[in-house]
Amino acid sequence: MAVLRLEGISKHFGAIHALNDVSLSLEAGEVIGLMGDNGAGKSTLVKIIAGNFQPTHGKISIRDKQMTFHRPVDARDNGVEIVYQDLALCNNLTAAVNVFLGRELTRSFGPLKILDYAGMNAAAANLFRELKSETRPKDMVRDMSGGQRQAIAIARTRLSSASIVLMDEPTAAISVRQVAEVLNLIRELKRQGVAVILISHRMPDVFAVADRIVVLRRGNKVADKPVAGSSPEEVTGLITGAIEAA
């Protein structure tokens, strides 16, 4: 059974058709590389799955149950988490506190509630261990590499035991070593049975971790095929329009 199924998803912003009749399915533990040029509709599609936008037409199903997401919390409550390109981290806070932003653990002392830093540090350490990341809970985010910051953002998705993680350009503007770290995080999510949709312009990264490639061009799906049956040259042709469809 697919953990996510999109059927005939379209999104119109007035006269602009950002998406046209896009369908796809995603299995547990599967990684889809979502590719396309700027303006192809990738971010719009992911924001629809994450509950930021509602589709103009089409259906979203989670485990064969049709859903209507009015806001992001609706998607999160159904196991969908998104890691945005800017990560939304606070540089002046520790890794653990960033993992729990908006979902802080507290302890009660009579009528008073205080933040449970020890509990958050211990829980974050377990999450980083599960992800096989060397990120340390008490370290300040401002001192961290791009790969460590991604680990924090991904650990945040594990708090809710998300079954679907959407990632927007996680390897953009980081070093080669950090890229390897992020790709290993994606492989670990896959090993744990989490389904991942990866938006990326970096062809080698997509071919390194994805099971399938979906290509959008001008709001239309022009390819949906196994990575093993494609090539960077074919995907480039699909993105640019040199190849109509595959």
UniProtKB/TrEMBL annotation:
Annotated keywords: ATP-binding, Nucleotide-binding
ABC transporter domain mapped to chain residues: 4-243
Transmembrane segments annotated in the record for this chain: none
Database matches in InterPro entries: AAA+_ATPase (IPR003593), ABC_carbohydrate_import_ATPase (IPR050107), ABC_transporter-like_ATP-bd (IPR003439), P-loop_NTPase (IPR027417)
CDD domains registered for this protein in UniProt: ABC_Carb_Monos_I (cd03216)
GO molecular function: ATP binding; ATP hydrolysis activity
SMART domains recorded: AAA
PROSITE patterns: ABC_TRANSPORTER_2
Domain of life, source organism: Bacteria
PANTHER family: CARBOHYDRATE TRANSPORT ATP-BINDING PROTEIN MG119-RELATED, SUGAR ABC TRANSPORTER ATP-BINDING PROTEIN
Name of the protein: Sugar ABC transporter, ATP-binding protein
